[in-house]
Amino acid sequence: MFDARQLVAVQIAQRQVAAGFDLVFLALCHARLGNASAADDCYRRAAAWLESRKTSLAQRWLDERSQFLAEATAAGIPRGG
What string of pLDDT tens digits covers the 81 residues of the chain? Predict the structure, then answer.
């Protein structure tokens, strides 16, 4: 059976250039599957990765960053804000 979490984890390891974005999607996968702790961890890692690179990202990527993090927040990730 195909598991998107495994695919995204491999992408994170191989594509460091977009790992923060991939981590947001991994957080959403975990949340959908009811694994809140893993979702929170991925979200926090994504937010830290994106924050540390915000001065070097193109405006298009910054806009996507805001949209992706907002989507995760709307899904209740991380728990407790």
Answer: 457 677 667 766 666 667 788 889 889 989 999 999 999 999 999 999 888 888 988 899 889 888 988 999 999 999 876
Write down the pTM of the prediction. 0.77
Q: How far apart are CA 71 and CA 61, in angstroms?
A: 15
Q: Name the domain count of the chain.
A: 1
Alpha helix locations (H) across the chain? 4-14, 19-32, 36-52, 59-74
57 within some domain? yes
What is the span of the domain harbouring residue 31?
Answer: 4-74
